[in-house]
Amino acid sequence: MKPAHWQADLQQVQQLRLFQNVATSSLDQLLREFRACELEAGEVLLSPFNRNQHLYLLIEGQLRVYLGSLDNQAVSTLEVGDCAGEISFIDNEHPSAYVVAERPSIVLRLHRESLVALFQQSPQMMQNLLELLCERVRKGNRQILDSEQNANVDTLTGCFNRRWLEHVFERESTRCAFNDEPLSLLMLDVDHFKAYNDQHGHLAGDYALCLVAHTLSSQLRPKDSLIRFGGEEFVILLPEIADEAARGIGERLRVSLEQIASFYSPVGVLPGVTISIGLAQMQQKDSLQGLIARADAALYQAKQQGRNCLCG
Ligand SMILES: Nc1nc2c(ncn2[C@@H]2O[C@H](COP(=O)(O)OP(=O)(O)OP(=O)(O)O)[C@@H](O)[C@H]2O)c(=O)[nH]1
Q: Is the ipTM here above 0.95?
């Protein structure tokens, strides 16, 4: 970080979020304490490994914030007017994130002591800082929620993934057992999918998987879960459904795909696919692994019987 030339400019400082509506007399004193610094693109301004005694205000360029590692995706971008380093500045701990210049940037640097003195004089600045921190907390909470939801969803098909299956099975198997209700599991596998990929291309195969996911999910109740279990394998958890009814549901799903002879996709019109299904009903003290193993054995049988059918 190199010192940069900066002509002290009260108006410019008043436009920074932290100093908005702060009395001119208070800022006048502070103006002499600012040090302007130049950052090259890619230069690390703050790192969790280095203690921080400064607050940085961005007056030119753009900064990116990374959590955990610089190899992760940036969690946020700081624009002109934003500040960096306020968390470590307040709690006097190491910075909680990396802050890196996205392109050549200029920051104003203030030592903590200069600012602490101003805090005593300016409730407005305290309020600005609190608002800024609240915004950061809310943004952080939103990111946690998004990443939690994303962690349960398969990105190609939008179905739940295996992580969610473990979670939902725990909940639904306990609930069904407690209420003396049945619970069934269907294991579905797209037929001859390797040949489909070979013939129409992997991208076409991806669209076929999306078709399967969409066709199946549109026929399920909100309390059912459709999970992409692996490549071209899906699992459906059917709470409060015994095997006879589950057989009916599985059949209906199988036929609905069988009836789609072709569909439109971004790579053109593609042939539909069929599925084979294995069914298992939960038994007392069944584990998820046990239930899946029985549905998988039934699926194997369906494949042996010529595919596009349901066993179990
Ligand atoms: N397009 C695409 N293909 C996938 C995906 N995941 C797995 N596959 C393919 O699915 C195919 C599965 O092939 P196999 O396990 O041999 O089964 P199959 O050809 O469907 O034969 P049967 O199951 O016996 O009917 C493989 O070629 C995988 O590459 C995916 O996300 N997209």
A: yes
